[in-house]
Specification:
- The structure is a single chain.
- The protein is mainly alpha-helical.
- The chain has seven helices and two strands, in the order H-H-H-H-H-H-E-E-H.
- The chain has a two-stranded antiparallel sheet.
- A hairpin with a 2-residue loop joins strand 1 and strand 2.
- The longest helix is centred in the N-terminal third of the chain and has 26 residues.
- The radius of gyration is 15 Å and the shape is elongated.
Length: 153
């Protein structure tokens, strides 16, 4: 019912990978790295909301929060939604990426942290899709994930 959140999450994963590759190939342009961290946070947030909305039984109440820790503690726990341990453990850090990576001029996230979070988010995303690198179809749009996949080292 809320598959559009998956489409949006996939888009954020793709954009995060592209930003990381751009960062790595352009002499470490900090804004690309921060942009990647923002898109990783957004991908995780949208996955959480997708899971939460699909578990709500009495009318969907849209959530207008970006705090991953609150989403997990207040909603995922309530509905028995499994979230990867690394995402739970680092939820507060990832939440900071949503705003600070875009607005704080001196803010910078370590590239290893971003890549680690991205890989965890991708693994969770594809676990939810049952198999990795499959042909995925949402709303009649076919997406071959391998076409968008860019290797990040």
């Amino acid at each position: 019912m809320f598959e559009e959140y998956l489409t949006k999450s996939l888009s954020d994963l793709v954009l995060a990978r592209q930003a990381i590759c751009n960062y790595q190939s352009n002499n470490g342009l900090k804004d690309m790295k921060n942009l990647a961290s923002y898109h990783v946070q957004q991908a995780i947030e949208k996955m959480l909301k997708y899971c939460i909305y699909n578990k709500q039984t009495s009318g969907v109440k849209e959530l207008y929060i970006h705090d991953l820790d609150r989403l997990i503690k207040d909603h995922c726990v309530k509905y028995g939604i499994s979230v990867p341990k690394k995402i739970v453990k680092n939820a507060n850090e990832y939440t900071r990426w949503e705003a600070e990576s875009r607005y704080s001029l001196k803010y910078s996230v370590r590239i290893t942290s971003i890549i680690g979070a991205l890989v965890e988010a991708e693994d969770w995303f594809f676990f939810k899709q049952k198999t990795a690198y499959e042909i995925i179809e949402w709303d009649g749009v076919v997406c071959n994930w391998e076409y968008y996949y860019v290797k990040v080292t």
